[in-house]
Amino acid sequence: MLPCRLIIVLSFLAAASANADTIRWGFSPSDPAPYVVLQGGELGPSITRALGERVADRLNMEVRFVEVPNNRIDRALRGGRIDLTCHTMPAWHQAPDQLIWSKPLYHDADVIVVRAGAGVPTWLADMRGMRVGTAHDQHYPPELVRAFRRGLVQRMNVRDARTRLRMVEHDRLDASVERRYTMLYYLNRHPDSRLQVAPWALSELPLRCAAEQEYRSTGKRTIAVIDTLAQEQQMADIFAGFGLALRD
Question: Which helix (H) or strand (E) holds 10?
């Protein structure tokens, strides 16, 4: 029989080897569909899963999707719990210069959603006094955050996009802040929905992937593969799988 100490060492080396061959891909459970879709507590068919699997396939590696709330992403990257995350921007991180960044993969936007037939705000000033649905750990443009802090707009955190949109439809919210592709996806799936999207964007979002610096050579290789997939129009193919056409 092997000595206990040797068994422990071999187990540690086996675990380390397994981690070296696996990308730990962080995602936020509050990111809306089709970016993130949870099924039975696991990441289901989604843009995040499709991208992660394509990257892992190119690298001949495994991928493990790790659920991390947005407000803990930086800590998870620094602590080595995850190797990278996507659907993000440098402005959303405490020390973006300490991360390895991909080029923008696609451009989304924050948009205002109201009930069909309701007056569509033409800008933030038109939203004074409105009850606006948000996610508690999502990032929002500075102008909107200031309006919340000054009490000009009433912020109401709601657990997920689907619930927020139903609350807008039933007049329990006056509006909701959602991602443009989330709304296109939702309206495609719910053509009878009583919702309309304001034609202007609160903010444009060039979304990217970020890897931890300590991930070093593998991180750079992973980001390089992500950039290559974007150049090959793979993101357009992934979005098309969810009935969405990427905007230029």
Answer: helix 4-20
Read off the pLDDT of each residue in 222-235 and give the average, rounded to a whole number: 96
pLDDT at 7 over 80: no
How far is the C-alpha of 135 from the C-alpha of 108, rounded, in Å?
17
Residues of each domain in the chain carrying CATH 3.40.190.10: 4-106+206-240, 109-204
Give the pLDDT of residue 20.
Answer: 59
| Structure tokens, 228 | 């290559």
Contact 153, 128 (CB under 8 A): yes
| Burial environment of residue 14 by CB neighbours within 10 A (0 to 12, 13 to 18, 19 or more) | exposed
* CA 34 to the chain's CA centroid: 9
Statement: 4-106+206-240 belongs to CATH 3.40.190.10:
yes
Calpha distance 45→27 (Å, rounded): 13
Residue 38 makes CB contacts below 8 A (sequence gap 6+) with 29, 44
pLDDT of residue 11: 39
In this structure, which topology does domain 109-204 adopt according to CATH? D-Maltodextrin-Binding Protein; domain 2 (3.40.190)
Asked which of 143-152, 186-195, 211-220, 238-247 is least confident by mean pLDDT, the reply is 211-220
* Residue that the structure tokens 């973006």 belong to: 96
152 within 8 A of 128, measured Cβ to Cβ: yes
Give the pLDDT band of residue 213 (cuts 50, 70, 90): confident
Question: Could you tell me the pLDDT band of residue 2, with boundaries at 50, 70 and 90?
Answer: very low
Spatial distance between the Cα atoms of 47 and 50, rounded to a whole number of angstroms: 5
